[in-house]
Amino acid sequence: MTIQPTRAVQNLVPYVPGLQPRTRGYLKLNSNENPYPPAPQVSAALRKATNPQLRIYPDPVCTSLRSILARRFKIPASNFIIGNGSDEILRLICQAYIDPGMRIGMFAPTYTLFETLGQMFQANIITYPLEDDYGMPSAVFSSRVKIFFLANPNSPVGTFYPPQLMARLLSTRPRTLFVLDEAYVDFAPQHCLRLLRRFRNLIITRTLSKSYSLAGLRIGFAVASPQIISQLYKIKDSYNVNRLSQVAAEAALRAVPYFRRNIQRIKQTRARVRRELQNLGFRVPLSHANFLFAIGQQTHKIYRQLKARKILVRYFTSESHTPGLRISIGTEREMTTLLRTLKNLIRGDKP
Amino acid sequence: MTIQPTRAVQNLVPYVPGLQPRTRGYLKLNSNENPYPPAPQVSAALRKATNPQLRIYPDPVCTSLRSILARRFKIPASNFIIGNGSDEILRLICQAYIDPGMRIGMFAPTYTLFETLGQMFQANIITYPLEDDYGMPSAVFSSRVKIFFLANPNSPVGTFYPPQLMARLLSTRPRTLFVLDEAYVDFAPQHCLRLLRRFRNLIITRTLSKSYSLAGLRIGFAVASPQIISQLYKIKDSYNVNRLSQVAAEAALRAVPYFRRNIQRIKQTRARVRRELQNLGFRVPLSHANFLFAIGQQTHKIYRQLKARKILVRYFTSESHTPGLRISIGTEREMTTLLRTLKNLIRGDKP
Predict the structure, then answer these.
(1) Do B242 and A242 touch (CB under 8 A)?
(2) Closest residue to B234, CB basis, from A14, A37, A55
(3) Mean pLDDT of chain A
């Protein structure tokens, strides 16, 4: 006989991440990875950190990494928790705060993991469709939910909600815990960390997967009041962040000039690609992330044609908005390849 | 105002792992880490795997690592799931199968994480005290629980329950899912993997933290029927095992002669240390793990005295059994230091 899992798990539709091809030769613009390698200091630190210390468990609370973050952001180390990617942090928040049937809120569209996690923990999910221009809907200001999940910049479009707007939302709904996923914020003009001083109903999550080119090493973190952070510590796996990821994260965070140049390059490429996509006839909303959302005719067909040519982008549909292609910003050269291929496809030439 | 977590999390007493001193100079015999470094092939593989691929997400389902495990154990790759340490796997099992109030069983004493996880998922925990000689209590054969958690060899004593006994238990209780944690099994004379062919109510968990010297990289796995494994895949974080840990695990699993020599050395040291602890007057039950459990007078005092001399062992108490010291097997030289210090303490000399 087979022993059955809980009903919530039986019914669960798992989150589907962007395709990770195992063969080479793909131009991978589907998971918002950084096209540039991590800082050279990361490799140097990793080489020093291999054998023989790997036999010892890692620091369960990432003391050194948190102290670097504390100095960098001028926030006490006790306000941080480090996760095996920010996905782990988001799951910990759900596990710590969601009781079955509890009302949680999120935009539509947004980071699709929010919905998967809500289902996993049997929340009652209330979605707030964004305005036609992806602006924040006014209904959010009267939302009665225990937790509200936002990504800022938001996916799949890259819309950025400025800190003043966020502050207004946080003060209007003081009984709602706002989980603000700033995965892409290093590509945006501002961030919301300083709101943590004023608001106790705020958790901000960050990742080193995008702006620090460390998706392969799984490092994310949350910043919030020590009261909130201590609840997450209670339920995390004891040794959730391995030794090499801790070392790599520390080295990456210290390499500030490399980080700034990397961000700058991606923003420049983003501006150029947006103009060229517009010239090709796509509608491309302003994005403050390391991706662009291209809306136009037959985007699903174009998605499949690109895939057949070994160019992976992500096709997004939603009930409330026009479907489109989410295209990660690659190197200048990669984007030139993409744009040339798109031009040929749209003109109907065989490239 | 502060937003409260769920009642289960509010009430939770977190698992306390062995002390991880951040300063050097400790003799660390408290976390059952392997005293020998990982195979040299691991460093070589890690050096090759650093920059620039770290910018890309890891394989979410560890395809290459699972195929190595499949060949090694002659079990299909679809029967495996890889975790960020076997602690993650154990948590996934609880999350997938435990409904609040559900009866789960475990020995007393055993791996203390089982109880923490049971509380986290609001199980009704039924404990079965081991016999005085740490044998399996007969009450287990009439247990009415949905899940039973066992470690084999068991902690903190190192008792090994042979596969024939496990088979009898599995066939007697076909409606109970048995989670058999074989973290230490490479130091034991047999294992239970072949029982998976006969029994669908069995999940076996393993780790590379102990016998493969990779505690710092967090790699564990579960083996069970694809029906069970698929439930765990649904709820795991998408990219739960980072790139470098996957690479290191593959290299470590391929280095079979190094692995065998390592195990052999630890077993030899274990036999010697057991005799010498017995000569010092301790009662030391037979252990098939990489640790020994020393029972005697004033073990808590000895624990503190050792700690003051920068030797860390673990002091375990239980309601049902005499307290004692769990001592991880270190190198020959480390164990000589420990035994000399113990001798001096017991004789009352100042070492």
Answers:
(1) yes
(2) A14
(3) 95
B5:A231 CB<8 A = yes
Q: What is the pLDDT of residues B189-230, one digit of tens each?
A: 999 999 999 999 999 999 999 999 999 999 999 999 999 999
Distance CA B194, CA B209 (A): 22
Is there a contact between A332 and A266 (Cβ–Cβ < 8 Å)? no
Dihedral sign for Cα B295, B298, B299, B300, please.
positive
A238 neighbors A59 (Cβ within 8 angstroms): no
* Residue of B242, B314, B331 to mutate, testing the A interface (most A Cβ within 10 Å of its Cβ): B242
Lowest mean pLDDT among B242-251, B313-322, B328-337: B313-322
Mean pLDDT across chain B, nearest whole number?
A: 95
Indicate the residue of A85, A216, A245 with minimum beta-carbon distance to B56. A216
Segment B258-282 mean pLDDT: 98
The residue in chain A having the minimum alpha-carbon distance to the alpha carbon of residue B35 is A55
Using the beta-carbon criterion (under 8 Å), do B217 and A56 form an inter-chain contact? no
CB contact under 8 A, A9 and B214: no
Cα distances (angstroms) measured from residue A76 to each of A59, A68, A179 = 18, 10, 19
Task: Report ipTM (2 d.p.).
Answer: 0.95
Q: From residue B308, how far is each of A15, B18, B297, B301 by CA, in Å?
A: 50, 16, 19, 11
Domains of chain A: 17-37+257-347 (3.90.1150.10), 40-254 (3.40.640.10)
Percent of chain B with pLDDT over 90: 89
Position A232 scores a pLDDT of 96
The answer to whether A28 contacts B56, with C-beta atoms less than 8 Å apart, is yes
The tens digit of pLDDT for each residue in A181-221 reads 999 999 999 999 999 999 999 999 999 999 999 999 999 99
| Nearest CB to A215; choose among B2, B57, B200 | B57
Assign A292 a pLDDT band (cuts: 50, 70, 90): very high
Give the helix ranges, DSSP H, for chain B.
7-10, 40-49, 63-73, 86-97, 113-120, 163-172, 195-198, 226-235, 243-254, 256-279, 299-308, 332-347
| DSSP character at residue A316 | E
| Contact: A215, B248; criterion CB under 8 Å | no
* In the predicted structure, residue A22 carries a pLDDT above the cut 70: no
Measured between CA atoms, the residue of chain B closest to residue A39 is B51
Min Cα distance B350 → chain A (Å) is: 30
Q: A112 to chain B, minimum CA–CA distance in Å?
A: 12
Q: Looking at chain B, how many residues does it have?
A: 351
Please list, in sequence order, all residues whose beta carbon lies within 8 angstroms of the beta carbon of residue A167, skipping any fewer than 6 positions away. A195, A198, A199
pLDDT of residue A351: 43
**pLDDT higher than threshold 60 for residue A1:** no
Question: Chain B: residue nearest A18 by CA?
Answer: B57
Are the C-beta atoms of residues B82 and B56 closer than 8 Å to each other? no
Would you call A216 and B242 a contact, using CB atoms and an 8 Å cutoff?
Answer: yes
Place of tokens 């003009």: A189
Whole-Å CA distances, B294 to B157, B302, B317: 9, 11, 12
**pLDDT of res. B349:** 53
- Residue A196 parent element (H or E): helix A195-198
